[in-house]
């Protein structure tokens, strides 16, 4: 009798937990859909940068498919899907979803592309890129963040993303050459090795400017071997690009 009661109790508890999870999942799906609409609306004020067509549906779909709440553990979905930056520990932040979308759009990623990200952080931007590219290589300088991001990406079956621990200033030649490079930490100038590893016709998107203040979101296009054009897109505020001591 006791065993039966325990079984009934366990079943009820499991069903309760499942119901609660389903409720949370539904809540997250709704919050994520709302975030995409906020981004779409916000993009209208960026018509000068994005053109009248605004953001591409392909990039918006990637934003709608990437579960940001799983990259910022311990946050409710209403916080995870608000259009703002969030701390991810060790003094680092995950960017505002609109900025992630804007940088992804400017990177102009095609389905067969190989993309480099410098500044893995939580792994969220890499996951967004993974929906759009054939292969994503991402470098993080802080060991704990590289490890945590690699685990999150693996748990979520992002099999086309490779995470490396190291200083992204030198890029990742063995993974390239790259069709697009996204740098998510601010530095005074674009690291020359990254331009070197960019294919002709490729694009690099990066906040250029001093640390702890406002930087210029910059798009560098490689127009030929040793040739580039540079475009300033707007003002952003990113965490600093740090260099390894060795
Ligand atoms: N793209 C991340 C957020 C980036 S925060 C996300 O989606 O969550 C910027 C990250 O760049 C931080 O994690 C910081 O540790 C890392 N970083 C700073 N300098 C770096 C460097 N030289 N090489 C690689 N990563 C660097």
TrEMBL record:
<dbReference type="InterPro" id="IPR000682">
    <property type="entry name" value="PCMT"/>
</dbReference>
<feature type="active site">
    <location>
        <position position="95"/>
    </location>
</feature>
<feature type="signal peptide">
    <location>
        <begin position="1"/>
        <end position="19"/>
    </location>
</feature>
<dbReference type="Pfam" id="PF01135">
    <property type="entry name" value="PCMT"/>
</dbReference>
<keyword id="KW-0949">S-adenosyl-L-methionine</keyword>
<dbReference type="GO" id="GO:0032259">
    <property type="term" value="P:methylation"/>
</dbReference>
<dbReference type="InterPro" id="IPR029063">
    <property type="entry name" value="SAM-dependent_MTases_sf"/>
</dbReference>
<dbReference type="GO" id="GO:0005737">
    <property type="term" value="C:cytoplasm"/>
</dbReference>
<keyword id="KW-0808">Transferase</keyword>
<comment type="similarity">
    <text>Belongs to the methyltransferase superfamily. L-isoaspartyl/D-aspartyl protein methyltransferase family.</text>
</comment>
<protein>
    <recommendedName>
        <fullName>Protein-L-isoaspartate O-methyltransferase</fullName>
        <ecNumber>2.1.1.77</ecNumber>
    </recommendedName>
</protein>
<keyword id="KW-0963">Cytoplasm</keyword>
<dbReference type="GO" id="GO:0004719">
    <property type="term" value="F:protein-L-isoaspartate (D-aspartate) O-methyltransferase activity"/>
</dbReference>
<comment type="function">
    <text>Catalyzes the methyl esterification of L-isoaspartyl residues in peptides and proteins that result from spontaneous decomposition of normal L-aspartyl and L-asparaginyl residues. It plays a role in the repair and/or degradation of damaged proteins.</text>
</comment>
<dbReference type="GO" id="GO:0030091">
    <property type="term" value="P:protein repair"/>
</dbReference>
<keyword id="KW-0489">Methyltransferase</keyword>
<keyword id="KW-0732">Signal</keyword>
